[in-house]
Amino acid sequence: MARTKKLISLPKLIKKRQKDIDELSNATENTIEKHFFRRLANLTKVKRFVIGWLVLMLLLLLVGVLQIGVLRHKYQKLYFVPGGTFTEGLVGSYTNANPIYASGSVDSSVSRLLFSGLLTYNSDQKLVPALADKITIDKTEKIYTVTLKQNLFWQDGQPLTAQDVVFTFKTIQNPDAKSFLLSSWQGIKIQAKDAHTVVFTLPGTLSSFPDSLTTGIIPKHLLKNVPAEQLRSNDFNTIKPVGSGPFSYDTVEVQTDKNGEKHEQVAFLANDSYYRGKPGIKKYVINTFNDQTELLKAYDDKKVNAVSGLGEIDQKYAKDQHNNIYSVPIAGQTMVFFKNSKSVLADPKVRRALVLGSNRQHVVEATGQILKQSNEPLLSSQIGYDKRYVQKTSDIKTANKLLDNAGWKKTVDGIRTKKKDPLTIKFVTLSTDEYSHVAQELKKQWASIGVRVDVALLNEEDLKNAVSARDYDALLTTLSIGADPDVFAFWHSSQADVRSKSRLNFSDYKSHAADASLEAGRSRSNPKIRAIKYRDFIKAWNKDNPALALYQPNYTLIVRSPFSGFNSKSLVSPVERYSDVEKWLIRQQRG
User: Fold this and answer.
1) Which CATH number do you get for residue 229?
2) End-to-end C-alpha distance for the chain, whole angstroms
């Protein structure tokens, strides 16, 4: 009976377990329904909440980044760093980089970047040592001893020594070399005392001699085997120059535009061994142009970083804050030189009439620049200038009377004639906007006193030929006088001689009184005595009127920002804009 009872209770147990499982299942379903499915309706609300927080976090992050950027620009300053390529545009053409031959704006600029002299000018027009470490003068003022700096090198790595200095100036002294500097070095003895010392012995005292030591030095080891008569055409001068200046030669390219005009591009690299330290600009390029219009177009098109040697400047450049404009006075004079020999202007009465028939102020205004007027053969800042002997202008009545007395009578058309020959002047000058404006203004002024003026605007090469042949009656150009008042080369009669190598006396002016005064003035070192000695020259020049003094020119340089390092307030000559070129910088970064 007991076994039967246990057998009966087993189904009940299974049933009971099944019931428990059903109850647990129901309880689980109820729990899931209560805590999951019933809360699914809140999922959308949760989703919006999470997305809202994410958006807020992103906005905070973005604001933080922007704030950091703004604060960085506010507290981190821009500063200049080395590097970059600087491209300068010049009017003219490239023909010769050798400093004993270089003339004209392009050649002189290229030469100044490649070569260094014993002395140089600072921004105050004062002579300071360059390759020289020091210079001493003996009591007689005839012996100059120059000691070179230590560790000077050519751009090919060879050492620069006193032998290179001697070679340079003895080459200039060799007539076969045909350097335009020959006349300045005649009679001077040059010796190398040792590897770092050079002694110059002058035949007489010459107060302006130190200025001659700014000429670039050329390498003996590369040129010693070149015959002097072949030096001027040697490849060294154009495609293989080696100097000791701030930049070394890289390449030269000649391009021809659609009009068949040639343009040169001369490129340089920073000289690592430059004695004043490696330049801040990595690469320097000079591009040449035929005229100022082409030059400014290249600047507007951002093909060049800078333009140099401009005359009148459009106000749009001054108003643009991205342009740095430097207009610096030069120690020079812009004049009209009257040919005193074999010309209608050989008559001093005609020359004086032209001077009195001129209005200097109106000429200056015609240039569109703010310029200081010039009225003597010396600058007002130089020793010897005497305000008692200024060249007077703007006296039309006296000008007409002088021409009448000289036999030049006005005809019905207003042009003066003598023996049926019209009073016509062949007026030549360089083709620039500035000179063109001056020429046209003088043409108008002189027409009022019965003089016909035929103006010829020439390129550099044609102008050189005209000057050499003296193929003009009047020449408008600018003299680079320099800081010293020694103007012997421009007005002494010896410099008008056809045998003179430089022949810078463009007026062919000859005066015994002027010659004696010029010789005496340059042989004195005492400023007061020099001023007295120059007095007779000023008086003779004022009486003879070999030229019409107009104004002291400015040198204008426009550079696109960023740019730093140009600090000159005045220049001895245009190429001295490079006096601190190693300090120029064109790249910036924040820090």
Assistant:
1) 3.90.76.10
2) 105
